[in-house]
Amino acid sequence: MYAIFSDGGHQYKAEVGKEIYVDIRKIEPGQDLVFDKVLFYSDDNGVKVGQPTIEGAQIVAEVLCKQKGPKLVIRWFRRRKTYRKKTGHRQIYIKVRIKEIKG
User: Fold this and answer.
1) Residue 20: how many other CB atoms lie within 10 Å
2) Which of 47, 52, 58, 78 could form a disulfide with 83 if both were Cys (CB 3.0 to 4.6 A apart)?
């Protein structure tokens, strides 16, 4: 059994027990997070496809921790001008574990 849901402009595949990283929001570790934009749901009985979402379907996840993503290096330069600039960025995510999928 799995589902595909949308959150923050990204689509994620959710299975019970799977840990995924989603965009940061103001929520404490240990609390439950509910995703209600379920686009696709599949189980033993069959498949449900939303137009665009499935009414009444939701995914319940437990927030585990806040974590930084990989470092992205950004470089600017002007050719033949001896101008070089290097900066970096690390996005903050929250790690969630899928507890339940309600179809």
Assistant:
1) 16
2) 78
Which of 13, 17, 29 has the alpha carbon at shortest distance from 98? 17
CA geometry: angle 96, 100, 101, nearest 5 deg? 110
Q: What is the pTM of this model?
A: 0.82
| Distance separating alpha carbons of residues 34 and 68, to the nearest angstrom | 22
Here the tokens at position 77 are 């330069």
Q: Which of 97, 5, 100, 96 is nearest to 48 (CA)?
A: 5
C-beta separation of 86 from 2 below 8 A = no
